[in-house]
Every structure is written in structure tokens, then in C-alpha cells.
Design a protein that fits this description.
The chain is built from 3 helices and 9 strands. It has 139 residues and is of the alpha+beta class. The longest helix has 23 residues. The N and C termini lie far apart (76 Å).
Length: 139
């Protein structure tokens, strides 16, 4: 895959070919058709990456059957074909061949805070060691 949004290390996650040529389509959760519809990325998949690209490929009937990518900022949304064909002066919206989903970057895990009890334990043990040393010096 070429660079999208300045990133060239995307991971392919899912593809929905509207009944054919699909791969992990359930994770993408497309409802609708080749002109418009919705997507709903599975929660488990959405939590695994920092950034997503939804890529639409134009069907064979479009004047320029190319790809268009959207930066996804939510796990669900809608899509509509951005592909058009002109025939005898009439412009018609063309089908989407398939929708692919790519992810980038693993989220940084949040730091696990050291419980206050752990700090108290370390302080208490340090106090016991100091008291023992003081007692040993007196004897």
C-alpha cells in the first residue's frame, strides 16, 4: 500500500467486497450497498490501533476508477461513493468496488500507577532498618 496521510506502514485489517472478495468483513461491519451505507468497526479491533484509514475503490464504471482514503476518527460512520461517470452529458454516481480498512500504530498502554500502599510499605521497611541500625549502634 502506498503512503496515506504521510504514513507508509499501514496494517491491512479488513475488506468488504459486497458479497465477493471479502476478508474479515465482519470486523468492518458494513451495512448498505455499493453507493452508500454505514460501517461499524468491531470494538476489539478499534482498541488495537491509534489511527485508521477507510479506503474506497471505485467500480469499473467510473471515469477514474481510483482509490480514495478517509482518516477515521470514530469506530462508526457512513460512506457514500465519491465516484462519478459522465455519459452523453449526464453525470451518474458509480458503485464502490470494495471498502478496505487499515490501521496504524499500536496504542501506548497507560502507565500502571504504583499503589500508595506500596510506597507506605517501602517507607515502613526503611524505617525498621534505620531503627535496627540505631539499636545496634547503642549496644
Amino acid at each position: 500500500m502506498d503512503s496515506i496521510f504521510g504514513i507508509d506502514s499501514w496494517t491491512f485489517l479488513a475488506k468488504d467486497g459486497f458479497g465477493s472478495d471479502s476478508d474479515n468483513a465482519a470486523a468492518l461491519g458494513v451495512t448498505g450497498g455499493t453507493i452508500s451505507g454505514t460501517f461499524n468497526i468491531s470494538a476489539s479491533l478499534y482498541s488495537m490501533y491509534e489511527q485508521f484509514a477507510l479506503v474506497l475503490k471505485g467500480g469499473n464504471g467510473a471515469d477514474n476508477p481510483e482509490y480514495i482514503a478517509y482518516n477515521i476518527t470514530s469506530s462508526m460512520g457512513s460512506y457514500e461513493s465519491p465516484f462519478f461517470k459522465t455519459n452523453k452529458g449526464k453525470v451518474t454516481q458509480q458503485d464502490i468496488s470494495h471498502i478496505s480498512l487499515y490501521g496504524y500504530g499500536m496504542p501506548t498502554p497507560s502507565e500502571v500507577p504504583v499503589p500508595a500502599a506500596g510506597l507506605l510499605l517501602i517507607g515502613g521497611l526503611g524505617g525498621l532498618v534505620a531503627a535496627r541500625r540505631r539499636k545496634a549502634k547503642k549496644a
